[in-house]
Design goal:
The complex is a heterodimer. By secondary structure, chain A is of the alpha/beta class. Chain A folds into two domains: about 180 residues, 2-Layer Sandwich (Beta Polymerase, domain 2), CATH 3.30.460; about 140 residues, NAD(P)-binding Rossmann-like Domain (Rossmann fold, 3-Layer(aba) Sandwich), CATH 3.40.50. Helix content of chain A is about 45%, strand content about 15%. In chain A, the strands form two sheets. Chain A has a six-stranded parallel sheet with strand order 7-6-5-8-9-10. In chain A, a hairpin with a 3-residue loop joins strand 2 and strand 3. The longest helix of chain A is centred in the last third of the chain and has 22 residues. Chain B is mainly α. Chain B has one domain. Helices cover about 80% and strands about 0% of the residues of chain B. In chain B, helix 1 packs across helix 4, helix 2 packs antiparallel against helix 3 and helix 3 crosses helix 5. Classes of the chains: A alpha/beta, B mainly alpha.
Chain lengths: ~350, ~260
């Protein structure tokens, strides 16, 4: 028995090609039936995400199955699919890499594992999987967990917003009930605020020189708008301050902040300065309980996270190679195998 | 047999500490079951030792500096085992193990182990006083461990570099809360211990009395100032370390004086 994999992903095909072959949730049953009708296939799983469309199947004759799949896809989309084809053991290795986030656009991202699980459970519910595919996917989930646990492939956040959320978590723990103030309604500050809201922050206060813009953003994210001249009055209860004004001078300096910090009863303050030129004087980071991150330091952490992840690739690949060996050995002992 | 139990406990804490250092060196600060199991095993060996020692001495095993150090180490680990999982501060164990290990090594290496003397006429209030005092010290010790973790995490956050430690240490807010709670818990135990001491009407050396009172007042002041927010979390963390260090350094002296009414 052979494990077959055919597909296209963000590395092999641009979006305008990938979207022609994407299989939505409504079309998955029909697509699975069509693939299973191909002669010599014992089961199939279709993984369709924004970055990849992949077909996994168990079968005896890879070349014939691939040719049939190519024809099927051409008939459905009207264009020739630039597919990659793998059979055992490369197909097994490919799935293990995909599930572990090694084949993702953002190295080590974890969303893909959920998507692989969903693709498998959908196929299983429709009765489209076989014994070998069941074993393969169960093994892939174990590999992904092993790789995540034993390496730092998922360490750190990989976007400015995600880094801000992660740091807020390291300062406050639970973000539920925290208050955020946005000074200057810019696009990045809005995205960062939205990330924080998704993690449960209670109140968002928006203050902008143009009040209408503050009101508009506040309405969009369910916050409260205040006039820019009054932001200091609402500051005492704020836990996270996001600055992104277009002011040519520092909006927040040590002299202004120190007395306000004394009134905070020891509560930490997380200042995210996304403005260029900067809104916050770097010296405020020296104040007790104040943690200042500017755009460079946030992007530096993103780079650092990606470097750490890249440095773990070799270890991940080695772990995956061991698992591929174990699975192929199982495959060889549990059915006729053509490698 | 007694000594073997102590050596086994020391090896358990050494294993936990060594594993932490290895994990740090490898950049993988993920504490698995090994760390917790090693600390739990060390605690079991210590408990067995204290049980045998108490049986032999016919009282709470706090009759020499040797006993006190082991009881102190045991109470630190006991507090961690109670508090650590409750506050989801599993890393407290990794930071507590070196202190427990240090106390055990001093007890084992220093020539402070005396011949066991069976004490006649045990006063339960004196036993309560002695045992609760040391357990209170355990809580203070753990608050100083949380203080160390707070300062490390604060440094990580201030440096604006995402190291492995940053991701694995608890949030700084939780650490500040843990310091305050552990200090409060220790203070309650110490207060009950002092009350038991007064009830027992045992003769007390004047220097020991004032030294103990100074420690109680200092921790009391820190707990109150923390409650009314007049002490910044960073200062609280620094003081938790400094005051416990002073208490630990003066412990042999207090122990010596307690044997001379």
């Amino acid at each position: 028995m052979n494990i077959l994999c055919a597909g296209l992903n963000h590395q092999s095909a641009p979006l305008e090609i990938r979207e022609k072959f994407a299989v939505g949730s409504h079309g998955i049953e029909e697509a699975l039936c069509a693939v299973r009708r191909i002669d010599g296939l014992a089961g199939a799983v279709i993984l369709s995400t924004c970055n990849r469309v992949e077909f996994y199947a168990a079968g005896l004759c890879p070349v014939r199955a691939f040719d049939s799949l190519q024809v099927l896809l051409r008939d459905r989309s009207g264009v020739e699919a630039p597919l990659y084809f793998h059979d055992t053991p490369r197909s097994v290795r490919h799935l293990f890499r995909v599930a572990s986030g090694l084949d993702s656009m953002v190295l080590g991202e974890t969303e893909i594992l959920g998507q692989v699980k969903k693709a498998y459970s959908t196929a299983a519910e429709l009765g489209a999987t076989s014994r070998h595919l069941n074993k393969l996917f169960q093994h892939a989930f174990r590999v992904a967990k092993h790789v995540r646990t034993e390496t730092q492939i998922t360490r750190g956040a990989t976007s400015v917003g995600a880094v801000a959320v992660e740091l807020a978590g390291k300062i406050f723990g639970d973000l539920a009930g925290r208050r955020v103030m946005i000074l200057g309604a810019g696009e990045t500050s809005e995205r960062t605020a939205r990330s924080l809201v998704s993690r449960g922050v209670k109140t968002v206060i928006v203050s902008n020189r143009t009040f209408d813009r503050a009101a508009k953003l506040a309405a969009e994210i369910g916050g409260l708008a205040i006039h820019f001249d009054h932001w200091q009055n609402a500051f005492a209860d704020v836990d996270i301050l996001i600055c992104s004004t277009a002011a040519p001078h520092m909006v927040l300096n040590r002299e202004k902040l120190a007395p306000m910090i004394r009134e905070r009863a020891g509560r930490p303050l997380f200042v995210i300065d996304l403005a260029v030129p900067r809104d916050a004087d770097p010296a405020i980071n020296e104040l007790d309980g104040v943690f200042l991150y500017d755009i460079d330091s946030l992007e530096g952490i993103v780079r650092q996270s990606l470097e750490v992840r890249r440095s773990e690739i070799i270890r991940c690949e080695q772990m995956i190679a061991d698992h591929v060996g174990a699975f192929v050995s199982w495959l060889r002992h549990h059915h006729e195998f053509r490698g | 047999m007694d000594r073997l139990l102590l050596i086994a406990a020391t090896l358990c804490f050494l294993t936990s500490f060594g594993y932490t250092l290895y994990a740090l060196g490898a950049g993988r600060f993920r504490l698995g079951r090994l760390n917790f199991v090693a600390i739990l095993a060390g605690f079991a060996f210590q408990s067995a030792f204290l049980y045998l020692r108490g049986k032999a001495e016919g009282s709470c095993p706090l009759n020499s500096l040797f006993d006190v150090l082991i009881f102190q180490s045991w109470s630190l680990v006991l507090t961690y085992l109670i508090v650590g999982p409750a506050y989801r501060l599993s890393l407290l164990g990794a930071f507590s193990a070196p202190i427990a290990l240090m106390l055990m090594l001093i007890a084992l290496i220093a020539p402070i182990d005396q011949d066991i003397v069976r004490r006649p006429g045990i006063n339960p209030w004196v036993e309560t006083h002695a045992a609760l005092s040391i357990i209170a010290y355990g809580a203070f010790g753990l608050s100083s461990v949380a203080g160390i973790m707070y300062l490390i995490q604060e440094r990580q956050l201030k440096s604006r570099k995402a190291s492995s430690l940053l991701y694995h240490l608890p949030p700084i807010n939780d650490l500040a809360a843990a310091i305050g709670r552990l200090m409060g818990f220790g203070l309650i135990l110490l207060t009950i211990s002092f009350a038991a001491g007064f009830i027992s009407q045992m003769p007390v050396n004047t220097v020991k009395f004032w030294a103990s009172a100074a420690i109680w007042v200092t921790y009391g002041a820190m707990v109150v100032m923390n409650r009314v927010h007049s002490l910044a979390p960073r200062r609280l963390a620094e003081l938790s370390i400094a005051v416990f260090a002073v208490a630990l350094i003066t412990l042999p002296g207090i122990q010596y004086l307690s044997s001379r009414p």
